[in-house]
Amino acid sequence: MDKDVILLGGFHEVIELCEKAGYNIVGIIDGRLRDSYFGYSVIGSDADAEVLFSNYGKCKLVLTPDSPKIREKLVNLYKPLGYDFATVISPQATISKFSTVGKGTIIQDGVNISACTTIGNYVKLNTNCNVMHDNVISDYVTIAPNAINLGRITVGRSSYIGANATILPEVKIGHHSTVGAGAVVTKDVDDNKIVKGVPAK
Q1: Where do the catalytic residues lie (predicted)?
Q2: Residue 94: how many CB atoms within 10 A of its CB?
Q3: Which of 68, 113, 132, 161 is the most interior residue, by most CB within 10 Å?
Q4: How many domains are contained in the chain?
């Protein structure tokens, strides 16, 4: 029963991740899909969340969307109804024994989390991203494929670090901010900002 999950959103990458990590996918909740997706039953949409709880409330939910804003919206919808959330970690990820990972977080293949790093709740760490020592990754953050966070970085709530971006040591990224793909961030980024380029501006 502890391994029974329902996916919030049909996404084949996360289906494969759950299979690798030994989870039993009971169904998918997605308003855009019908019947089945990659062999798994589509059991309803977000509008059915309250009704579905009576049959599926013991299953943990897996947050598949990449968007921090959408993940936060889903948690705010499902959590008050009594649902719990699964943390899904690829067996091909490397996580320091001195670091912690929060509830409802997705960690894909090839991710590295170095020592003394804190990963918050409902975070998504995409394939091959590298989070080095003494980072603080706040709730709902997304780090895209191949991004690199060097040492002693703080990333604020619901921010997005784009693919192949590099954040230099001791930089602070504010809440609800976006770092563009391939950017090199050399100084702090305020809340609600979008930065891109080399160096990022």
Answers
A1: 133 (proton acceptor)
A2: 12
A3: 161
A4: 2
Name the amino acid, one letter, at 95: I
Split at pLDDT 50, 70, 90, the class of 1 is: low
Any idea which residue has 């590298």 for tokens? 130
* Three-state DSSP class for residue 162: coil
The residue behind tokens 């589509």 is 42
The CA-atom distances, in angstroms, between 115 and each of 118, 126, 132 are 9, 19, 7
Q: Are 52 and 30 in contact (CB under 8 A)?
A: no
The proportion of the chain whose per-residue pLDDT surpasses 70, expressed as a percent, equals 100
Q: What's the rounded Cα separation, in Å, for the pair 22 and 18?
A: 6
pTM equals 0.96
- Predicted pLDDT at 114: 98
Domain span at residue 41 reads 4-81
Whether 175 sits among the annotated catalytic residues: the reply is no
Pairwise CA distance, residues 167 & 147, whole Å? 8
Shared-domain flag, residues 95 and 166:
yes
Tell me, yes or no, whether 47 lies in a domain: yes
Residue 199 lies in a domain: no
pLDDT of residue 2: 80
- Taking alpha carbons only, the member of 132, 159, 165 closest to residue 146 is 165
